[in-house]
Amino acid sequence: MHDFCFTIPYGLILVGGGVFGYLRKGSTASLGGGVGSGLILIIAGYLSLKALEKRKNSYLALVLETVTAAVLTWVMGQGYYQTSKIMPAGIVAGISALMTGFYLYKIATGGNHIPAKAE
């Protein structure tokens, strides 16, 4: 499975959650954090997709994805630890931890699998 198949939806969920948090509670932290991190992930997923179209790996995209997911895991994990609120801190921390593991796996296995050219 290619990283962008999960990264782009993950980024869209974060953007949606940030906007929802702002509209529901007026939280500018949700808006900035969700939209900011979501856009970084969407851009990284797009870079990875475009690299694969050229039959290459984008290690810049993998690093951006991994760092963003790891930071979200840490920040939202701290939020969950302090408040014990599953929504949104616990959910985002859990998803981000899974995504961090996925990205580390992709890095360890050499990035996206580039299929052989069809003849």
TrEMBL record:
Cellular compartments per GO CC: chloroplast inner membrane
Subcellular location: Membrane
Major location category of this protein: membrane
Top-level division of the source organism's lineage: Eukaryota
Transmembrane segments: 7-23, 29-47, 59-80, 86-105
GO MF term (any one): fatty acid transmembrane transporter activity
Keywords: Membrane, Transmembrane, Transmembrane helix
InterPro entries: TMEM14 (IPR005349), TMEM14_sf (IPR044890)
Family: Belongs to the TMEM14 family.
Protein name as annotated: Protein FATTY ACID EXPORT 5-like
